[in-house]
Write a structure and sequence with these properties.
With 288 residues, the protein is of the alpha+beta class. The protein has 8 helices and 9 strands.
Amino acid sequence: MNFRALIPLLAVVLLLGLMGSVYIVREGQVGLILHLGRVSQTDIGPGLHFKIPLVQTSRVFDRRFDAVDFSPERYLTSERKDVAVDFVAIVAIADVGNFFRATGGDERLASERLAPIIKDSLRNEINARTLTQLVSGDRSEVIAKQLEAINEGALNLGMRIIDIRLKQIDLPTDSDVIQQVYNRMRAERNQVASRLRAEGEEQARLIRAQADRDQAVILAEAERDAQTLRGEGDAEATRIYGQAANRDPSFFAFQRSLDAYRKSFESGDAVIVLERDDPFLQYMRSDR
């Protein structure tokens, strides 16, 4: 037999055996070894590792946090009102051996088995709250009270729940809860609007009353000042007329008569019937 001809074949077999006995676990991953289909080694950290070809099989899983979305679940509040809660869980593999035994390494199956654990635990908290407390309250408080119990159930799956977030709380469209909520919201808004309108009307009345008072005071003060000024003006006019009359009584009488003539015939069509010797005509009869 020509052993030289078998050397390349042996080299290929050796290379294939070497490749089948080496596996790599990267950073953020965890590995396990299956010996004839049974878990023999777990929690294998990052690095280059060896196994027995054909006898042992390696499996590598991501150990980093992963966000798992769950389908919305319907719950009843303490008021017996139907709500649909949509949530997401941040999960990680805590025990790769238990994870593989429970799910066979199937992440989809792991999510399906994890869902009822989370949903049933949240049901206790949601059932104990009213719709207003659930929507307006601290949602993290709902999760915090049940996270420890949820992790106890998740540990059987080799998983750990880091956090759970309630993404959305909806009212199912096939129930009358939405209409009830809208009616309550509408009534509350109408009540607030009525209160604001009443307050606005009260403020408007106060402002108008104050403005009326201010107007009355201003008009009274203006009328008082006007009366004072008119009195002072009349007194000054009387004084001036008196001075003028004392300085030249005849001219003053003449000027007064001219003013009387002007006012009498101002309209242009006035007719005055007087005696011939009436004093009103004295300056029309004489040039003195």
